[in-house]
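Fig. S4 source data, part A: sequence.
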Amino acid sequence: MRRPSPLDFVVTSGIVIMVLAATTARSLLTPLFSSGDEMAHFDYAVQVWHGDLPVFEDGLQVELPWGVRPPVQWTSQHPPLFYVLLAPVVGPLYDSGSPYLAGMSGRMVNTVIAAVLCAAVMWAVRPLCGGRRWLPWIAGLTAASSPWVMGVGSAIYNDNMAALEITVVLGAALRLITLPREGTGVFATRSGMWWVLGIAAVAAASTRFALVPIVAVVFGTLVLRGLLAPGPLPRRSWLLRPVLIGIAMIAATGWFYLRNVRLTGTVAGGHPDWAKANTGRTSPPAPLEVAADPVYWSKLLGIFSPGNTPDGLTLWALLAAPALLGAVLATVLGAASRRGRSAPHGSRTPGAAERPVALAGVAMLAAVSGLLITMQFVYVSAAAGNLFPRYSLPILSVTCLLIAWGLGGLRRAAPLLVLAWSATAWWQIVVFLLGRPRTAARGQAELRPDLALPLVGFAVAAAVVTVAAVLIGVVMTSRPAPGGPGRRARRVAAPA
């Protein structure tokens, strides 16, 4: 296992600081409870603090002087883990008559989760970076430059927590699939990684029902990996351990999903009939119609645009083009690495950190991504739902991994590409934040631009330092060509 370098610390710290600063600034520039979803999530946490669970038809229990109040409690179908985390923070403040402090404190909890999510993306993608130590940094930087990671973090939503749990699940599974030997520490040993996977999987099932099928795909991949190439772990262990984690998920959350069945007739606990009758989407499109409409794709995947329906520069320059290039580079360079690995005697033999991209891990990420997209398209059709980029946050690590390969797969081109991408991404973030209203409208909670604007500058400074550290890491890191020794090694070996 590679020891962290000073640059690892600088990049990670910079990413965490810029997310905390920018997300807090956005929170201070966004009226509290300006969406019905945020008020419903807040109400759920307050009800948990009071020892209750919400019921869809009963509506909200909180009484607030401003904000958008939904007609029903439409977050009641979610399992309660996120709200158990929020309850001791927001509950006492609400009960003491300080709803503004309660709401802003709940937002701060989500801001911290957003920062941890971006750090988790760096950790999760490392096994599929082909020994290019700078690619996880770029992946973390792109995650931290997503307006939707910041947007969810600046409000009371459970999307970032769900994304964090699935990111840890995927990162642990990738290590179990790809790492050829034991390391040291809980995050390197196989037994420790199974514990990390189990805890994250139970947490995912305790946060959102839609995460359970994704975890099931991960378990299926692990079982196949164990049956086909068990390595030092017996085949029965590869089968038994996912089963035990599944039993733990049922034990932790089964009672809640049985409650959903009792109250609504379905495990998911949704109310599609109410949505069709009250949202104007009485004739939703068929799943194939959704899949054929590019607008739905952009609304789901456009995590680098502040708007709900991304287009133009943010969609193509920040997402589509680098992700497509990344898929091509990962495929081509992975094939070159495999050829170098099987070269005749005398050629370089890649170490564990330089092995080719594991096809099983790639297949798992592809299956997880395809499943999530399919579920969202079916949701639009069957439940009269709508799509937002935050619904794709569970595959944030996949998106950022592809973009990292696109920006950093070719080391010589990486500095220019990373610099151009980061400048574009943060230019639109700053423009968006500076364009927010400075005064609250009538009936809205107060805004604090006096605190937010200095934080915007602080976030930009942290982003500049982070990008500079990434560029230094790219330039200073020697990367031998696949299939043979690097230039430096050839110079040393050459006769005088």
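Fig. S4 source data, part B ends here. The first helix runs from residue 6 to 28.
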